[in-house]
Structure formats: C-alpha cells, structure tokens
Amino acid sequence: MDSKINNQIKMNHLYRGDCIRVMKNKMFPNSIDLVFADPPYNLSGKNLTLIGNKTGGNFYKVNADWDKMSDVDYDKFTDEWINCCYNLLRDRGSIYICCTLHNINSILSSLKKLKMNVKNIITWYKTNAMPNITKRTFTHSTEFIIYATKNSKWVFNYYDLKEINPERQKNGDLKQMRDVWSIPITQGRERLKLDNKKALHPTQKPEELVKRIIIASSNENDLVLDPFIGTGTTAVIAERYNRNWIGIEKDSNYRKHALSRIKNNRI
Ligand SMILES: C[S@@+](CC[C@H](N)C(=O)[O-])C[C@H]1O[C@@H](n2cnc3c(N)ncnc32)[C@H](O)[C@@H]1O
Predict the structure, then answer these.
(1) CATH code linked to domain 4-266
(2) 27 DSSP assignment
(3) pTM recorded for the entire structure
C-alpha cells in the first residue's frame, strides 16, 4: 500500500514526532475508524530487572525515557492524547488502549471525562510471562486492553471474530470470542532483534493481539490510527487485512525499524 492522501489525510504513513502534536496539527476530526494505542505505562525505574532472559534481554524492567513521568504529568498526558484521539474518531469509531494495573485508573478516568462507553476490559494472559524474582507477589502474567466506543452505533464484527477464534466448542463448532486472550509475549521470528540478538523494543505487541482488534472493530479500507506505533505492528496487521493506517512514533530508531518491517511484510 502506498501513502495516499484522502481528504488531505496522509494514509499509510508513519509520522515521527510527539503524537499529541501530530494529532493536533496534521490530522482531521471524524476521520479515524479505529484507534489502537499502546502508550507508555510509566513503569520505568519502578521494577526489577531480569538479567539475561532468553526472549531478548533485560526487559522485565522497561527502562526507557519515554516511559518516565511524574504521576501528575502522566495523568495530564493521558487526558491529552486520549482527548486528541476522541476528536479524530468517527462517531461509529472505537478505541483500544493497552494497560496494566499501574495505569488503568488514569486511562479509565480520561475515558470517563469524555463520556466514552467502555465495552470490555480484555485480559491478555501472557502464556510465557516472566518469572517473579521478588517472590513477594503473585507472578504478573496479564495486561489489559480497554475497549471503548464513542457513540451508540459502533462496528463489531462478531462473526469474523468467531472465525478467527483459535478456541473451539467441545464438538468442534466455532466459539464466541471471549474477553480473555491467551497469547504469548512476542517471541521467535516475529520479535525484532538487534545485531547482538537482544530485542529491539521492550514492548513489541504480538501480531495476534492486534489482529483480533483490527478484525473486531474495523472493515476493509477503514483507517486505523496508532499514536504509539513502536515497531509498526499495527501497520503490518492493518495492511495484511486491507485496512489503511496512520502511525506516530517519536523515537527515530524505532521508526526506522518499523518502516523496514512494514516494507518487508509487503514482499
Ligand atoms: C508501549 S510502546 C508501543 C509498542 C508497539 N505497540 C509495538 O508493537 O511495537 C510505546 C511507544 O510509544 C513511543 N512514544 C512514547 N511517547 C510518545 C509520544 N508522546 N508520541 C509518540 N510516540 C511516543 C515510544 O517511543 C514507544 O516506542
């Protein structure tokens, strides 16, 4: 898919920069069908490191500058970017936001201020979660994905979800997609690696997870926005299922790798 201008929006394009600025200055209200957002969780510097794990390095502790804010700044940032997404969404549009117990309150509070309708809180059960080296809590093996809609009419492709649901009923029939998804943390060939074999990005989301969201809440030729696109997962899946996309990423190295991943997936 080439970049194309539709109603002055540059589609299938990865902007580099701060998503709030890009959404305010480069995009238009009521133009987006679906937002998938995997924002910073503001966890850096607050967790223990697991040294030398095989999945690609010490990334139990996400320790990145983009993931460090005071609690007050984080709430303000969350309000601001969600507000921008709300303005860009079409009336029938949906938003999915990844989070953990650490930031779920901020996100729900921002959605509530906008009177968005929270339809589900999906639990992502990470079947290969990192071990708990503190031995002082239950081992964390879940993240959440808040699914909210803007208005009373929204796209939900119930039957397509049944088709792609890997779970089956006892007699082998198709099964409704539930709100608990068992998916491993991105690993193997899907995981982008540096030359030293460490993971390029600490939080690359699994393609399977993004696929379910795109199939559920968009149709072919719709426009999907990811304001924190990281390694480009959303763009790759959007193209695979014939959706248009816009991505935003402030880190130029991640953007460079995302662009080459998108290009490779076209081949
Ligand atoms: C949790 S990661 C997203 C990972 C992505 N879902 C993937 O599959 O690779 C968040 C990303 O947002 C970027 N980021 C952080 N703050 C940003 C901002 N204000 N504007 C744009 N990108 C930002 C970070 O550089 C990081 O790559």
Answers:
(1) 3.40.50.150
(2) -
(3) 0.93
Q: Which residue's alpha carbon is at the smallest distance from atom 18 of ligand 1?
A: 18
64 CA from centroid of ligand 1 (Å):
10
What is the rounded distance in angstroms from the CA atom of residue 36 to the CA atom of residue 227?
A: 8
Q: 120-153 pLDDT, tens per residue? A: 999 999 999 988 888 899 999 999 999 999 998 9
Residues sharing a CB contact under 8 Å with residue 44, sequence separation 6 or more, in sequence order: 61, 62, 63, 64, 65, 67, 68
Q: Is 31 in the pocket of ligand 1 (CB under 6 A)?
A: no
* Atom of ligand 1 lying closest to residue 77 CA: 19
Residue 13 contacts residue 201 (beta carbons within 8 Å): no
Please name which of 248, 258, 249, 250 lies closest in space to residue 88, comparing C-alpha atoms. Answer: 248
User: How do residues 71-81 score in pLDDT, each as one tens digit?
Assistant: 999 999 999 99
Helix or strand (DSSP H, E) at 92: strand 89-99
Paired tokens of 254: 């991640």
Domain edges within the chain: 4-266
Return the half-sphere exposure (C-beta side, CA atoms, 13 A cut-off) of residue 259: 13
